[in-house]
Design brief:
By secondary structure, the chain is mostly helical. It is built from five helices and three strands, in the order H-H-E-H-H-E-E-H.
Length: 117
């Protein structure tokens, strides 16, 4: 494989890998909001667990999930810097349960496909 072909292949892999991860962001976020977290702490927790999410992706997602009534937010102004905390609503917990089941089903199917079963 020529150098330019190798570079294009690596770039294609990077793009497809990001696309694959993008589909997991909602489930990842919901799974970490069973107790309240603020945006930056959520970015850090997800990164530590191997799911890097940019703040520019996370904050619009949090607002969208809140508008869908899956999250609720509250401000904490007691510290030196006000922070907006997010947590699951009842609908959010129900959605997390449904999406977790769906993820398990998809994962099982994909494992079968990749093993050629």
């Amino acid at each position: 494989m020529k150098q330019t072909e190798g570079n294009e292949f690596a770039k294609t892999f990077e793009n497809l890998s990001m696309e694959l991860r993008r589909g997991t962001v909602v489930l990842s976020v919901l799974s970490q909001l069973q107790k309240p977290q603020y945006g930056y702490s959520l970015v850090e927790v997800l990164r530590e667990k191997g799911i890097p999410v940019e703040a520019g992706t996370l904050y619009p997602l949090l607002r969208r999930l809140e508008s869908q009534q899956l999250l609720e937010s509250m401000w904490d102004t007691d510290g030196t810097k006000p922070r907006k905390y997010y947590a699951l609503t009842k609908h959010g917990r129900d959605m997390l349960e449904l999406l977790s089941k769906e993820w398990q089903d998809v994962t099982k199917s994909m494992i079968g496909l990749l093993r050629q079963e």
